[in-house]
Amino acid sequence: GKVLPKNPKTIGYLVGPASKTRIPDPAPIFYLRLPEVKGIEEVVLVALLGKGDRRELEMASQKEELKASAMRQFDSLEVGPRLFKITTTQLGKGEYLFFLVGSAEPPKGNYGKGYDFGVDEPHR
């Protein structure tokens, strides 16, 4: 999804209250294929804040510097050409985004790109 600017301050957002991609596991494993121009060190995992009909992403500035409190750790292993196995820590219920650093195009009103998903409480 595209991260859109809310105001010139420091909040970006994704449209919609929740990602269409739902995951029941609080410590999910992902496979992510990156564009040729991106390295895995340019991918960050961030927690999004639900605000009504959108999910917000707090940034330290318009230079795409993300607030440390929003960041989540993950381990990556290259398992194929530009294909990475991503192992996350316990994320808990919430909305998240794999954010591609350096993907912003402010003149187009786009403050970055990424892959969003939501973690649901696992059914017992």
Notes on the protein architecture:
Helices cover 0% and strands 46% of the residues. It has strands at 4-5, 11-15, 22-23, 29-33, 43-51, 54-58, 71-72, 74-80, 83-88, 94-100, 113-119. Strands 1, 2, 3, 5, 6, 7, 10 and 11 form an eight-stranded mixed sheet that branches. Strands 4-9-8 form a three-stranded antiparallel sheet, with no helix packed on it. A hairpin with a 2-residue loop joins strand 5 and strand 6. It is globular.
Keywords:
mainly beta, three-stranded antiparallel sheet, 11 strands
The biggest beta sheet is recorded as: 8 strands, mixed
Helical stretch count?
Answer: 0
Order of helices and strands: EEEEEEEEEEE
- Shape estimate: globular
Tell me the β content.
over 45%
Would you count the extended β strands for me?
A: 11
- Rg, alpha carbons: 14 Å
* Helical content band: under 10%
Low-confidence stretches: none
The computed structural class is mainly beta
Mean pLDDT: 82
N/C terminus separation: 31 Å
How is this structure best summarized?
The chain has 124 residues and is an all-beta fold.
Helices and strands, with pairings:
Layout (H helix, E strand, L loop, with lengths): L3 E2 L5 E5 L6 E2 L5 E5 L9 E9 L2 E5 L12 E2 L1 E7 L2 E6 L5 E7 L12 E7 L5
Parallel strand pairs: 3-11
Antiparallel strand pairs: 1-2, 2-6, 4-9, 5-6, 5-7, 5-10, 8-9, 10-11
